[in-house]
Design a protein that fits this description.
Elements (H helix, E strand, L loop, with lengths): L4 H5 L4 H14 L5 E2 L11 H13 L11 H15 L8 E4 L1 H13 L5 E5 L5 H8 L3 E5 L10 H7 L4 E7 L11 H13 L3 E5 L28 E6 L12 E4 L2 H14 L5 H12 L3 H22 L14 E2 L10 H12 L1 E2 L1 E2 L9 E4 L4 H15 L6 E4 L2 E4 L4
Parallel strand pairs: 1-10, 3-4, 3-5, 5-6, 6-7
Antiparallel strand pairs: 2-8, 7-8, 9-12, 11-12, 13-14
Helix pairs in contact: 3-10, 4-10, 5-9, 11-13
Length: about 400
């Protein structure tokens, strides 16, 4: 077969592949612990279920506008005013099939061939492939000091005549790092000064720990929405534990949102009607599920970091938000792909290789599961890597004995 150049160069999503691998192993009865997951264990809010059920019971499930139903856009307007202090109009909002589609539509709307998109390292695995899919060139920027937090100067140094946009994800997937308000303020100013789009991926914006407030990019923008190149992305997937509903949205200038709506209309049309009504219920309903999730995740983080800090040879930075950690395992194996495969084959623990996020030697370890999954998973990893760990390990209904001792 003759495939396009883009199709030949794109890589599949490693996280989706690992989810599939874990599911297949579980079907075979293998005692898999999934520490690579990207979705909370908590249930969908009841207000979302009620709203979705009501439209299903009506039997009136039809096409919707390409940019989302009016009720959902109204809910997003209220959400934006409440949590960002920004009043916008319906024409500044588009609802999409998840935050990923919203970002993809934006990239298609702003990129010409060879245009560049900058994002800090570590980055979400899909950013480089999404940029390439839109015809652009991904430009990852790694901090000179090896940290998860590059300086604005380093972002500025990477900018050139082809730079069209910067994507910033905070709290960050995979590191859980949260960019400081000073960093965001400087970046907003830099992008405005150079007329470069700034795409704020706020997927985990309200899952912030240790009493910190979320950083609001609008606090540092003096431009009106319709004159600004600031685009804010959000979704119900993570904060409301509604990953399967596939609803996200973008808030930006009328010109950009209109272009995104035209593109989305040709790609998929509007998001699924029941999912949109579920999102309406979530956004308009009682919000205590987010607080409960944040408390649970913060407790899980503390347990995970305690276990990792007791693990000799591991270097780990405590996440400030989201539900991922990104420890450095290079003391044991520099090749993160081989290490991840070893842990899956040896002790049936799923992790995500750091190379997929732009930092070799690291593994992404999620803490959105149960406490038992976290503690048992780290115990298995330590048994597999640390020669001082006990000689035997219980793995489901069988016991493993070190073959190198």
């Amino acid at each position: 077969m003759s495939l396009s150049q883009i199709a030949r160069t794109l890589r599949e999503s490693i996280t989706l592949k690992l989810n599939q691998t874990a599911a297949l192993l579980r079907e075979k009865g293998e005692p898999v612990i999934h520490l690579g997951g990207g979705e909370p264990k908590s249930k969908t809010p009841i207000d979302a279920i009620v709203s979705c059920t009501a439209v299903l019971n009506s039997g009136d499930i039809k096409y919707t506008p390409a940019d989302g139903i009016p009720a959902l856009k109204k809910a997003i307007l209220r959400y934006t005013e409440e949590h960002y202090g920004k009043a916008v109009r319906p024409e500044n909002v588009i609802a999409s099939c998840g935050a990923k589609q919203a970002i993809m539509a934006a990239l298609h709307a702003i990129l010409d061939p060879k245009d560049e998109v900058i994002f800090p390292v570590p980055y979400w695995v899909s950013y480089p492939e999404m940029v390439k899919l839109a015809g652009g060139v991904p430009v990852p920027v790694r901090a000179e000091d090896g940290s998860f937090h590059p300086l604005v100067r380093e972002i500025a140094d990477a900018m050139g005549s082809y730079t069209k946009a910067v994507i910033l994800n905070s709290p960050n997937n995979p590191s859980g790092a949260m960019y400081s308000k000073e960093f965001v303020a400087e970046l907003v100013e830099l992008c405005a000064k150079r007329s470069i789009y700034l795409i704020m991926d706020d997927t985990y914006n309200r899952l912030v720990f240790d009493g910190r407030p979320p950083v609001n990019c609008y606090d540092y923008s003096s431009e009106e929405v319709d004159q600004s190149k600031l685009l804010v992305i959000n979704c119900v997937s993570k904060m409301y534990a509604m990953t399967g509903f596939r609803i996200g949205w973008a808030v930006g200038s009328k010109e950009l949102i209109t272009a995104m709506a035209v593109i989305q209309g040709q790609q998929t049309s509007g998001p699924a009607t029941p999912s949109q009504w579920a999102a309406v219920g979530a956004l308009n309903g009682i919000q205590n599920s987010i607080d409960a999730l944040r408390v649970t995740l913060e407790n899980n983080r503390n347990i995970l970091i305690d276990r990792l800090n007791a693990f000799p040879g591991i270097r780990v930075t405590s996440p400030q938000g989201a539900f991922y950690s990104f420890p450095d395992f290079s003391h044991y194996m520099a090749d993160s792909q081989k290490l991840s495969e070893f842990l899956l084959n040896k002790v049936r623990v799923v992790t995500v290789p750091g190379r997929e996020f732009g930092m070799e030697g690291h593994l992404r370890i999620s803490f959105c599961g149960t406490v038992k999954e976290i503690t048992d998973g780290i115990e298995r990893i330590r048994w597999a890597l640390d020669p001082t760990a006990p000689n035997e390990l219980a793995l489901g209904d069988r016991r493993l004995v070190r073959d190198w001792m």
